[in-house]
């Protein structure tokens, strides 16, 4: 997913092509030259040359005619994860919230105008989800994303929406500026954000921001689950209290982090 705030003229095309191939390998969970050519739109000779180079550097492994990402990326992922103070600070609060609610709990942060999950924990009744650690998401259609957007200044929100737009993922996704700004105002007043099947049909979520004492947005914590089950509990003070308590505990952990 490219960042729209970088001028195309400033990009090194050979690097762009290599990264396009790596992303295609990741999305397809491996593939051959022909499949990668179709996915990237690059010439076969270009794909083959880049794969050969990436394999020589240890970033790609080859098994017959199939290529896949190498385990070398594990070290990158672990480094990036642990470099985020939010990752360590959220460990126990996220686990406790998943245990209390029985649902899937996520801790996410914003980068390049998108939300990215940095920690996930399943409760005893969690459902399978395509959103996991490292998954980028649009902010306007997720509970955690809207919780973060609500506490950014107007200029930052304008920049994010201008860059990424308000694409629809379901018929419930907010796709107009007026509706979004009204909802963000409500979130600022209540401290709670909702996602009513706006990103994935049948899956809803409730989220709260993780803030510094000066209002700086660190991220958000989200409880997600089947729409019919989670929305029946939305008005329960207990769920709100548990969510806000988890967010506050993470805030305190960040305050006293080394």
Automatic annotation (TrEMBL):
Superkingdom, taxonomy of origin: Archaea
Record's keyword annotation contains Transcription: yes
InterPro entries in the cross-refs: ArsR-like_HTH, GAF-like_dom_sf, HTH_MetabolicPath_Reg, Tscrpt_reg_IclR_C, Tscrpt_reg_IclR_N, WH-like_DNA-bd_sf, WH_DNA-bd_sf
UniProt entry keywords in alphabetical sequence: DNA-binding, Transcription, Transcription regulation
Record-annotated IclR-ED domain positions: 72-256
SMART domains attached to this UniProt entry: HTH_ICLR
Domain HTH iclR-type: 12-71
Protein name: IclR family transcriptional regulator
Species annotation: Natronolimnohabitans innermongolicus JCM 12255
């Amino acid at each position: 997913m490219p960042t729209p705030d970088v001028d195309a003229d400033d990009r090194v095309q050979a690097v762009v092509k290599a990264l396009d191939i790596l992303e295609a390998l990741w999305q397809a969970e491996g593939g051959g030259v022909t499949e990668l050519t179709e996915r990237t739109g690059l010439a076969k000779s270009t794909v083959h040359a880049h794969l050969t180079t990436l394999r020589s550097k240890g970033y790609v492994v080859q098994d017959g005619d199939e290529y896949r990402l190498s385990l070398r990326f594990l070290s990158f992922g672990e480094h990036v994860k642990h470099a985020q103070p939010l990752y360590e600070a959220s460990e126990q609060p996220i686990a406790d919230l998943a245990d209390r609610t029985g649902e899937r709990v996520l801790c996410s942060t914003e980068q390049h105008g998108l939300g990215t999950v940095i920690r996930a924990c399943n409760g005893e009744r969690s459902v399978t989800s395509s959103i996991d650690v490292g998954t980028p998401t649009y902010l306007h259609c997720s509970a955690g994303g809207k919780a973060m957007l609500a506490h950014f200044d107007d200029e930052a929100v304008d920049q994010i929406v201008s860059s990424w737009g308000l694409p629809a993922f379901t018929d419930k996704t907010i796709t107009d500026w007026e509706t979004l700004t009204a909802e963000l105002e409500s979130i600022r007043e209540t401290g709670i954000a909702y996602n009513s099947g706006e990103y994935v049909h049948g899956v809803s979520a409730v989220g709260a921001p993780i803030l510094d004492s000066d209002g700086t947005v660190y991220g958000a914590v989200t409880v997600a689950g089947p729409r019919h089950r989670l929305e029946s509990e939305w008005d329960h003070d207990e769920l709100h209290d548990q969510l806000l308590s988890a967010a506050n505990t993470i805030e305190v952990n960040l305050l006293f982090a080394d």
